[in-house]
Amino acid sequence: MKRITSVIGLNRILSAYRKQGLSIGFVPTMGALHQGHLSLVEKARKKNDIVVCSVFVNPTQFNNAGDLAKYPRTLKKDAQMLKSAGCHILFAPAVDEIYPPGLDTEVHFSFKGLDKMMEGKFRPGHFKGMAQVVKRLLDLVAPDDLYMGQKDFQQFTIVAHMLKTLKLPTRLVVCPILREENGLAMSSRNERLSADLRSRAALIYKTLKAAKPKLKTMDVREIEKWALQKMRVPDFNPEYFSIVDGYSLKPVKDFHAHDYIVACTAIWAGDVRLIDNMIFKKAN
Ligand code: AMP
After folding, report:
1. Residue 20 Cα, ligand 1 centroid: separation in angstroms?
2. CB within 8 A of 231, min separation 6: which ones?
3. pTM here?
4. Model confidence over 159-218: pLDDT tens digits?
5. Cβ proximity of 262 and 279 under 8 Å
6. Which atom of ligand 1 is nearest the CA belonging to 150?
7. What is the pLDDT of residues 112-155, one digit of tens each?
8. In the chain, N or C terminus with fewer CB closer than 10 Å?
9. CA 254 to centroid of ligand 1, rounded, Å
10. Ligand 1, closest atom to CA 178?
């Protein structure tokens, strides 16, 4: 595996691969890698000749300086894990490489309101920053395929919208959520949970699972209230539990009127913010 930190270095190596007609799969991450991230690398290895993984803690998507400072950084271990997973290129740039002074990297397209609800309400500016870094990385890597996790449902929905709106030639491959043994969605932030909270955080997945069958018999808003109530236990503080249309991310009223429905939730476990989701309905 090659470790690259500069845009010029990345350009050089990728253009050589492209000249050989090799396809490129790209996995953007913020590091502190776990099996969930590696499942994306594995998927890319199956489909693409060359797998590029970026590790970059993007400052523009943090609306809270404390959260940015606390974000775990474990580059040495990440590199080892990526090497074992068969990644070909680790791109780990400094902030100045991604955002060089004088370069306008802001994105200019309409989010069509996809950034306003759920995470957008609680993390203002988050998706603008996320779209900015993904667009910049796509410009640099120009992959055939981009791999993202269903774990960040609103994120991949916005990226899919961006690819379509800007007519970018990259295909988005969405990969399933990998979970710990107790059902907690794997996340870099889980490392910051005490053993007790980590074990009790299984409540999130349990609530999602229990809510799903209720959709056929109970009013959607009542299910949301029920789920919030169930997760309001000592040390846990849910921010939202929203049952939304999987395409527009707008609240679902009538179960029958939608063919794609997802429940998304965010909850504080102590001082760690966790998110999770589950697809409740999807027509093939
Ligand atoms: P992050 O480093 O948290 O920005 O995540 C990088 C990518 O890994 C995103 O596309 C995430 O959706 C994906 N990812 C994070 N956690 C998981 C998980 N538990 N299972 C599958 N993919 C994940």
Report:
1. 30
2. 203, 204, 207, 238, 241, 265, 267
3. 0.97
4. 999 999 999 999 999 999 999 999 999 999 999 999 999 999 999 999 999 999 999 899
5. yes
6. 12
7. 999 999 999 999 999 999 999 999 999 999 999 999 999 999 99
8. C
9. 30
10. 20
